[in-house]
Write a sequence for this structure.
């Protein structure tokens, strides 16, 4: 049969913290949204189960601006799992004498991409071998080629008509109405967006779901 001689892995970054801009916005907006929910709860206007409401009331902001885009501990663990799967699937590739020239690593100027590459090799190699790998400079022009395309950049400057139609359409109206009923006060699209970000990032990083209580499963997965 065939024997693998090399592996080419084109990979997205692993689990990361939110952007600094998002973290600052969460710090500013989420406490006020929580106060609104608490006030609505006192007036019996909230339609969230007691356990979820209590968890939400205990919520503390888990992210700091210095976390900006960095890879999370849980993300590094995910990369370790990936390495173990590759070792089992291609055992012959990762045996024998180490040669630094066998490893070619590409990443972009975004810190999370280099940290993901580093986490991968840290799980794969000994510290001595890891230190011998030459990472080289970022390769934005190759790995983020879409940012070098003037046509795409020009098209991206204007919001597509379809996005505007969706945001003003019946689905978004139903979502805002349902969310407002659930949390007990009228929410905006921006409110929903920031609660959703808090939900998905906290679940991915800490497996905590306080803000997910504002959504049902279909809304989170859509």
């Amino acid at each position: 049969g065939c024997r693998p001689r090399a592996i080419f892995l084109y990979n997205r970054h692993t689990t990361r913290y939110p952007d600094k801009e998002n973290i600052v916005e969460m710090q500013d907006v989420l406490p006020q949204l929580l106060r609104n929910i608490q006030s609505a709860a006192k007036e019996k206007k909230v339609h969230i189960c007691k356990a979820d409401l209590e968890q939400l009331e205990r919520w503390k902001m888990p992210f700091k601006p210095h976390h900006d885009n960095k890879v999370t501990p849980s993300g590094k663990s995910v990369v370790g799992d990936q390495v173990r799967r590759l070792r089992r699937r291609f055992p012959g590739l990762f045996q024998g004498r180490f040669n630094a020239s066998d490893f070619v690593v590409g990443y972009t100027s975004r810190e999370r991409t280099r940290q993901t590459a580093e986490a991968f090799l840290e799980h794969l190699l000994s510290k001595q071998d890891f230190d011998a790998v030459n990472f080289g400079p970022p390769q934005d022009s190759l790995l983020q080629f879409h940012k070098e395309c003037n046509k795409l950049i020009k098209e991206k400057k204007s919001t597509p008509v379809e996005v505007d139609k969706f945001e003003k359409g019946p689905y978004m109206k139903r979502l805002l109405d349902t969310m407002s009923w659930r949390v007990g006060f009228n929410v905006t699209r921006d409110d929903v967006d920031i609660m959703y970000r808090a939900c998905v990032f906290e679940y991915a990083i800490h497996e905590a779901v306080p803000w997910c209580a504002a959504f049902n499963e279909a809304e989170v997965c859509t």
Observations:
- The chain has a mean pLDDT of 92.
